Amino acid sequence: MAFVGLHAGHLCQELSRNHASACGQRKKSIARGKKKKNTWETPVTEYIPTEMDFMGWTPPPLEEDEFTPIVKTAAEAADERKGRNIVALRVAKLTCVTTFFLYISGGSAPQLRAITNLVEERLKEVHGMTTRYGIPGNPASGWLLLDYGDLMVHVFSEEQRKFYDPESIWQHGEKVELSDVVSPAGLRKPEEVMEYGLETTDDDDDWSLS
Question: Which InterPro entries does the entry link to (predicted)?
Fold first, then answer.
């Protein structure tokens, strides 16, 4: 197991160094009045393996994973607050950091806060779970995080979701089927919701009491 920890540790260090370099380059570009989608020399995806061998360990089928119901509870709560493009990935064989990522898009800072508040409330109520670090991030930044250890819930603005494009980074993860708990509108991207005439978020929605 020491080898596994060492290998995973090297991967996490490489990701951290690459992320720090990318952030530095972005700041310089912004200072010069330029915006670039990807300014690092080596794409971060090259540091993420298609699969890691944890001493022959294999995760159980998704339907048998004890965290799958928790992921679905969080996704359902996000859908109730009209979250869009709700995607869950199991990355247990790709990283030592977590087991599941849940990605959600919202249309405004108040909506991002409303989504995270209900997800946090529902997971505590149904599964007795609390976040490890509160709710890091500022809704105005367009990115909030709920860290439950084996589940990390990322709530993005549409702009930040497109900018960071997390699904492409973890493209080799296993996609969790959410259609049994999330509405058709919740599974689609915001622009698709409008295109297909599905229920969408109104600009007049009041999230202040959510």
Answer: Iojap/RsfS/C7orf30, NT_sf
For residue 180, tell me if it sits in a domain.
Answer: yes
Q: Which two tokens stand for residue 184?
A: 């058709």
The CATH code of the domain that includes 146 is: 3.30.460.10
Tell me whether residue 186 is in a domain.
yes
pLDDT at 55 over 80: no
Give Cα 207 to chain centroid, integer Å.
21
Q: Which residues contact 99 (CB under 8 A, 6 or more apart)?
A: 59, 65, 67, 90, 91, 92, 150, 151
Is the same domain home to 35 and 60? no
Indicate left, alpha or beta for 149 from its phi (over 0: left) and psi (-120 to 50: alpha).
left
Neighbour order of strands in the sheet with 84-90: 143-147, 151-157, 100-106, 84-90, 174-175
Average pLDDT over residues 44-73: 80
Q: Give the count of domains, the chain.
A: 2
Q: What average pLDDT is seen over the chain?
A: 79
Alpha-carbon radius of gyration of the chain: 18
According to the model, what pLDDT value does residue 4 have? Answer: 37
Q: Is the residue at 200 inside a domain?
A: no
pLDDT tens digits for 170-199?
A: 999 999 999 999 999 999 987 776 555 555
Residues 6+ apart with CB under 8 A from 102: 71, 74, 75, 78, 86, 87, 88, 151, 152, 153, 154
